[in-house]
Prior knowledge:
This protein is mostly helical. Helices cover 81% and strands 0% of the residues.
Amino acid sequence: MNATIAMITFRAMLGRRRALLLFALPLVLILLAVGLKVTGLADLEVSTGVLQRFGLATLLPLLALIAGTGVIGPEIDDGQIMYVLTKPIPRQVIVLTKLAVAIVLVTAFAAVPTLLAGLLMSGMTEQVAPAFTVGVLVGGIAYSAVFVALAVVSRNAVTIGLLYALVWETLLGNFAPGAKSASIQQWALSVTDVLTGATTVKSTVDLAVAVPLLVAVTAVGTLLAVVRLRSLAVASAE
């Protein structure tokens, strides 16, 4: 990991207009949790429903998409990445640094708000809050790797990411069991399911399948980004 690249990336991410979404989306979750708590509606079923449908299924992929594509996509689009590529920095270090920044952002703006919202609504009942926090964290790592790779491979990374998160995982996932099983969201939910005793949390994928898939997707996404970034350097030299 390169500290200079990380610092520049953090500064760029938190200085752009898209940073408003990084703050706004988790704020909606927190305000929703506060509202449910104040009105006395935050029972276990409602709490798990909010954390799953809004926190894990909506907030997480959108924030991961913003972070994952934002840490490197704009630099590729405007050509600034070539300045970094001319430095004697291994391509894998660049990718891992960008990925690390994306993961930190997802942790700060998705995992932490999920924990706070869960604690506000249900406290430590059935370990719901920490279980969803871990689920969001492991899912966020996989999402970040996929979206960083998309940003390096395609200029339409945001569109492709939205199609995957909203169409494949959300729409098709409700009707096609195969689509639901091939879903980072469901793999993360599987981890959550194991960590909580709440019967309202149920994943369609076994943990023994979900964990290797999360690891594999993260590794493949990272490797793909490294390989593609190396080809960008070759193209520039030519």
